[in-house]
């Protein structure tokens, strides 16, 4: 099981420690470093900055949002950064949810998410393979555009720039069972949002007949500390926000996932409190048990014991949201 560093997205401003953490991770032998985006900083610019200050560590987006760019624009970002970094780019994509897609990007959330994802990936693959002009008679991502408001003179094109690698790894952030199953067929890897090494049965039906080399790369908060309860607070804050606020009361993919993992009553309670403006109570309503099983928190000996559980399952890459160099160092030592 390889280790990666997940830096996430910026909060109110640039995160001053991100570059130091990325260079430390490379020095410690971490395989990859990952950036993200929500509705503030983008994923590709910070990753390019990191690429300029490193030489070996792989560079991934976890995740870049599909609604933010057309698939050809996303492919241009990926092939450009792959060239600049000497072939270190890994493209992680996600559909996001209706509130973000329609509220931030001003676009309709696709009526068939599976079809929209499949078409998006198809176009990106065509660009990167550069076998001919990009052409797709699609429902959401037709190339050329065939809408009634178009001119009708769109021309199929292939990228002027030859991609460095035609097989640049493409991973998807998927949460629903059908989406996960499709991911195993059309992508090179899967970026789970929550992963519990003691509840792998939640995903078992979607992960049959995995292709050789398929990546399963979940994120997990890691923190070496003496007080487990205190160390879990940032995890609970994240869960409270995602489960309570990253989606509508009637359509929240994160809450649905928590419910499938055995915490349905707790997930609905978190939603109820968060949407009522009682955000602190929503965070406190996150069960310590759930926050703990998807994280690596506590003294070194406790983390070592729990890390063994992650190694025994199908996870190929563990992406750590580790806030300090000491934690990065301990995890590197324990996983060696």
Automatic annotation (TrEMBL):
One short Pfam family name for this protein?
A: Bac_luciferase
Q: Where is this region: Disordered?
A: 139-158
Keyword Oxidoreductase in annotation = yes
Say if the entry is tagged with keyword Cell cycle: no
Q: Which CDD domains match?
A: Tetrahydromethanopterin_reductase
Stored InterPro entries: F420-G6PD/mer (IPR050564), F420_OxRdatse_Rv3520c_pred (IPR019951), Luciferase-like_dom (IPR011251), Luciferase-like_sf (IPR036661)
Q: Which UniProt keywords apply?
A: Oxidoreductase
- Output the superkingdom of the source species: Bacteria
Q: Which residues form the Luciferase-like domain?
A: 15-315
What protein name does the entry list? Answer: LLM class F420-dependent oxidoreductase
Gene source species? Streptomyces nojiriensis
């Amino acid at each position: 099981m390889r280790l990666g560093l997940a830096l996430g997205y910026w909060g109110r401003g640039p995160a001053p420690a991100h570059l130091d953490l990325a260079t430390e991770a490379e020095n410690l032998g971490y395989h990859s470093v990952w950036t993200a985006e929500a509705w503030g900083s983008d994923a590709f610019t910070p990753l390019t900055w990191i690429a300029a200050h490193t030489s070996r560590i792989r560079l991934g987006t976890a995740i870049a949002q599909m609604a933010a760019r057309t698939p050809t624009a996303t492919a241009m970002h990926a092939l450009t950064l792959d060239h600049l970094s000497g072939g270190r780019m890994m493209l992680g994509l996600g559909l996001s949810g209706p509130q973000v897609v329609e509220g931030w990007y001003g676009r309709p959330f696709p009526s068939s998410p599976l079809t929209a994802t499949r078409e998006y990936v198809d176009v990106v693959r065509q660009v990167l393979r550069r076998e001919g002009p990009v052409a797709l008679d699609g429902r959401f991502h037709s190339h050329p555009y065939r809408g009634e408001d178009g001119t009708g003179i769109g021309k199929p094109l292939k990228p002027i720039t030859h991609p460095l690698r035609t097989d640049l790894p493409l991973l998807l952030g998927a949460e629903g069972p059908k989406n996960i199953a499709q991911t195993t067929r059309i992508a090179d890897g899967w970026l789970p949002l929550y992963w519990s090494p003691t509840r792998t049965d939640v995903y078992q039906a979607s992960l049959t007949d995995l292709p050789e080399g398929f990546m399963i790369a979940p994120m997990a908060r890691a923190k070496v500390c003496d007080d487990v309860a205190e160390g879990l607070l940032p995890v609970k804050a994240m869960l409270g926000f995602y489960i309570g606020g990253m989606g509508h009361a009637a359509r929240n993919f994160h809450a649905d996932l928590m419910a499938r993992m055995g915490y349905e009553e707790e997930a609905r309670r978190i939603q109820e409190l968060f949407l009522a403006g009682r955000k602190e109570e929503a965070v406190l309503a996150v069960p310590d048990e759930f926050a703990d099983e998807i994280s690596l928190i506590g003294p070194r000996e406790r983390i070592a014991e729990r890390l063994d559980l992650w190694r025994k399952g199908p996870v190929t890459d563990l992406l750590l949201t580790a806030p300090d160099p000491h934690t990065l160092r301990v995890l590197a030592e324990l996983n060696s």
